[in-house]
Amino acid sequence: MPTPLAILKDYWGFESFRPAQQEIIESVLEGKDTLALLPTGGGKSICYQVPAHCKPGITLVISPLIALMKDQVYNLRKRNIRAEAVYSGMHFKDIDRILDNCIYGEIKLLYLSPERLISDLAIERIKQMNINLIAVDEAHCISQWGYDFRPAYLRIAEVREWLDKPAPILALTATATKEVVKDIQDKLSFQKSNVFQNSFNRPNLAYVVLQEENKNAKLLSIVKNVKGSGVVYVRNRRKTKEIALFLQRNSIRADFYHAGLSPEDRSKKQDDWMQNKIRIIVSTNAFGMGIDKPDVRSVVHMDLPDSLEAYFQEAGRGGRDGKKSYAVLLYNEADKMTLIRQYELAFPDLKEVRRVYQALGSFLQLAIGSGKGESYDFDIIRFAKNYNFETIKALNGLKILADDGWLSMSEAVYIPSKLKVQVSKEELYDFQLKNRKFDLLIKTILRTYQGAFSHFVNINEYQLARFLKISKTELEMLFNNLKAQGIIHYKPQKDQPQLTLLEERIDAKNLIFDKKLYEFRKQRHKERIDRVVAYAEDQICRSRQLLNYFNETETDDCGICDVCLEKNKSGLDSESFKQYEQKIRMVLKDGALSLEEIVDAFAPKRKEQVLQTLDYLLDEGILSEKNGKLIFEI
How many CA atoms, within 13 angstroms, populate the side-chain half-sphere of residue 452? Predict the structure, then answer.
């Protein structure tokens, strides 16, 4: 088999690996279970895509991000690498065909959502596959200590029990605290601890928090003053369009992006941004996964994030080329209130959760004992309205059910329209002769989409309607007419979130919840929110706050965040500050002293600098005052 470096050159055109990539790949090829903590932009996907080619067989990639799976499969195929993906919302026949190809074909990478991984169909087929590696992307999802726990991840370790021969596990994540690092290895049944971790420090990235009421005006100022490309993160799809339009009206080349766009649209917008045809992409958190643009000069968050893990990952898409870049969080008091309110609503009373579950069964028209493994297009707005729920309470009730393993919810899945001719060629020709109004449409389909007689083909109604010079609505009516007459199978495109039932429906009164676990999750959620608010409000070096959160405690002030720059404006640079701090520590080594006693220990001309240093140490909580005396806490 070829070497990892030869594969990297042949398929990706790179002459060398990035830091830690080669060591991670070698560890996996030696059959060792491996956890790779690589910051955003560290090239995690290469760590399993390259070794997939180093041994016979297929690599199984488990990922919760449908948009990312689809994008990676699309990009791998462009490199002539055979890859497939199976996720919620796909038709049974498509899943069946793909899994068969993974057994009998030459597929090198199979991407599976965790919910599909544990379906009976997948389990039976995986047992027949020659698995050479199990890659677990977004591995923090396995830990209830983490910020994005997904119960289906707890079943991943079972995969090895289904295999005839052992396969190593490669777990990958961009962010993890020490508790999560340990939990990942425990839950995936690592044979021994084996962690590769790069420092989370980004010395070229200036973290900035700005308290702003008029966020749009401030955003415009930022993108006008910080040249080069940028990303703007917002909470919902509607705002992506609104803010992109606002920037366009102010002569900024901007576009919007979210997971509900078709793969073609997403790919075009990504390419335009990568090639600097547009400067600013305004997006939900769907943007950035698997995209490596080194020269991003600004990443702006318009809202407080839910966790520092998510913020660090998204902000880290700036400055991958090592040059100065800015990660800006626009914040105001209303954001804090919104985040606290969201927390209060995130854990509804368990009686309310039972009511949501009961209503869900009725909404999906499920009998008791049915539904396991089935996926449904799910409109949360219609569900809430039909059963008189507040939308946010209904959503959070479903999340509690998801956390307890009853169901899973995914982002909106774009699945294109599909068509298959149901009759023979002779019967179709006879139909065309008798029904001239369908003749041009049928001829166009047969010329444009090869294989429509043998299998479902993806069709683009917009392009087809433009070619036929009719409206999309008229085209859909023609398709439905052909379907009604038994000439074709037709599945219209869809773009809705998917809800998958992981267990059979039971009577709501028989639902069992782990109350201790419920309280644990609630406490962890509150802790994450508190840390986000502290990051925004505490006048402590932003970089040091983030690094300390990820257990890098031996760190200095960055010198380039807004807090450090404000401190430097007073004429006290980082080096001078350190010197004064050390001298104050010496003065206090024998016990607590008053402010006046500390100042008197220095030359009179140093009074201003000493007072500035003391103010900063008190603000940071490094010094504390007790009974009029100052003492070091840290």
Answer: 24
